[in-house]
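DUF1893 domain-containing protein
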Amino acid sequence: MYAQDIRILAEQYEEVEYLGVISASDAAALVAEHWWALLPIDDEVTRYAFPSKSSGYALAGAAVAAICGDETSVARWVKREGVGLVCPPHKSALVRFFSELEDICIEKFGASDQLKKRLAISSFSASLREVADKLSSA
């Protein structure tokens, strides 16, 4: 949706790089190289969906910068799990957020070992097996 805008920014600014569509494993490796991962999401969307990339960001060790309303499911998850910060979806708040990042202790954020275990594929598989076993025995 914003690919063309990002391409234009990448041509104008050396700080912006457009990679196009990349594989999930390449995306995870890329996120792991950075301290922060941006998670902008429309508040209305959070009523119906939860971005799966949020857990990928946490697993990769990047702090999540959730750009959404404070009362959304995403904001509550980021705060509850302690994996980042929430920034209101307004230009002035976003500018202030990025300006203040230098003063924030990065080690404060990141997925705990317990959360990483819960987000791991093996944990999801075990949960699915439990559900399947219950359904087959019913």
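thats it. Residues 121-137 form the longest helix (17 residues). DSSP finds seven helices and three strands in the chain. bye
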